[in-house]
Amino acid sequence: MSLEASSEGARQWAFPANDYRAAVVRLATVSVRRVQHLVWGAVELVPTEVPVPACLVDHWANAPGTRGLTLVYGQTAMSVAEGLAWYEAARDGQLHVPRRAGNAVHATPFASEPAWGALLAEVSAPFAAPWHDGPRIHRLVPMSDVALEVSGLRGDGTEEQIGVTEAARRRRRGLAHSREWFARRIGFDAWQWDDWLGAVALIAPNPLCRTLLTSIHERCPTTGAETILVEAEPREGADLSTLTVELLERRADGWARSWPFVLDAYGRGIVTLGGRAASVGLTARCNVRGLLAHREPAPFWRTVNWSMGFAAQRGRVAVPSGGRARPAATQDFTFYDVQHHSIGEAPTEVAVSRLSRLVSRREVRRGTTADDELIFVPGDRERAVDFIRARLGRATTRALVVDPFVEPRDLYEFGIQDRRRGLATTFLRSPAGLNAATSLPDLGTHPLGHHLQLQTRHLRGQLGADAPVVLLMNTIVFHDRLLVVDDAVWMMGHSLNQVGLTEISTMVRLRAPEAMLSVAVRAVQEAQPIDRWEPPPDQQSACIDGFGI
């Protein structure tokens, strides 16, 4: 017969009485002036083959940063019927310390999710143990904010404020230690999971199977048709005769087919597909217990590819002074070589590049790309420079800066960061303004174009083909500033030398960069190298021949 909750007329839970040997109530609270407030609780049902955890109670009085709170954690083993009765009492607003009905625990009103008596399969819960293998879960969801005594352990952000005191820093460190104390006992940081803070869960692991696995069993060498093996590892004494498994296949454009079957006495089932498997998932349903497992379709690991970057060369470049705010300095950098390895079916370069493009376009459609919009406030110069340098350093096929007002200093700040050897950063600049007389420390006053030529030659002499390249816009002239890394394009409101200084700067990643990327590539192809620039005749005699630092 099925177990019932203690109140008459309540819905029955969908599992027989002999599925589980015991229940363990886990309860985390904070206590102040003898009043306990709920942090998190759970009733974990223990399958017959699993040892029952020992009972324990632990507490930490006057926990650091909490201003007098006591942290309490306990776990109590009891019969399944007692555990379900405790869970039902929590739903009805009568939450209490297990086996101490008079010791109430304050909590907000709860709502059942899903309906009372039903269980959700394959819940990704932060407190689930590996042996649960995707347990079925019911939860009591708090319908209002948790008590201030509980939410206060998250911290109030004092440390980020200007003028922070040492006392505030000590309190934040103390709160972090208090949250860590709970995390070591309940298995997760409840303050990082707002949907579980102040909640109570019922955890019902699969009572029939420890694991459910799918793998490619055989492949026809002529047709490529594949056979899929489904293996269930039965729990001790479990009867799999009531279990029906349905294999599901999903291909690129939608669902393909499903194959329902019954496992044999060893917990195995074999399905022959008509061709090569795409993404395969499964559903396991019991005639008595209902839905036990649902695995979303996923592709098989046919190939494992990885790349390894090796530091190939360390270098140092002298960076000339850019004025009082930018003194002369030296900058270290690393070139690295990349080696590619694969195990399994090695894909062709055409397939890899096409797959990369398809994934990128899918991310654009779904709006899941990172770094979509960044705002740099005045004084954010260091963060802005680090962000741009990091993106350029990750480039594998293209590193391009389109900026009509590139200055000599930009070649050092954004052209010699750690990066892949053989991939130089290209700067595309407007020819306008190159005749302007520009003063640089140690180099005197000369046309800006001549300064760019000298600095480019200086870097080329040290780095060779890895030196940054400066090109001048020709027929295609940009007003906007662009940062192009491989196939990603960011638009910038300021030139490189002004981002994050005295005005608010923005960078926005284009969701559909193909058109802008095509124009930028064509502009680079038509551009002229800075070496071909010549100063006006009246300024040629003033240009210096060497790099005087």
Write a compact overview of the structure shown:
The chain is of the alpha+beta class and 549 residues long. It is 19% helix and 38% strand.
Task: Please provide a written account of the structure.
The chain is 19% helix and 38% strand. By secondary structure, the protein is α+β, with helices and mostly antiparallel strands. Strands 3, 4, 5, 6, 7, 8, 9, 10 and 11 form a 9-stranded mixed β-sheet that branches. Strands 21-30-29-28-22-24-27-31 form an 8-stranded mixed β-sheet, with helices on both faces. It has a 4-stranded antiparallel β-sheet with strand order 15-14-17-18, with no helix packed on it. The termini are far apart.
Mean pLDDT: 83
Rg (C-alpha, Å)? 32 Å
- The proportion of residues in beta strands is 35-45%
Helix proportion range: 10-25%
The strand count comes to 31
User: Any idea what the CATH superfamily of the largest domain is called?
Assistant: Endonuclease Chain A
User: What is the CATH third-level topology name of the largest domain?
Assistant: Endonuclease, Chain A
Structural class: alpha+beta
- In total, how many domains does the architecture comprise? 3
Q: What is the overall silhouette?
A: flat
CATH architecture of the largest domain: 2-Layer Sandwich
Number of helices: 8
Question: How would you sum up the major sheet?
Answer: 9 strands, mixed
**CATH class label of the largest domain:** Alpha Beta
Contiguous uncertain segments of 5+ residues: 1-11, 157-163
Distance between the termini: 90 Å
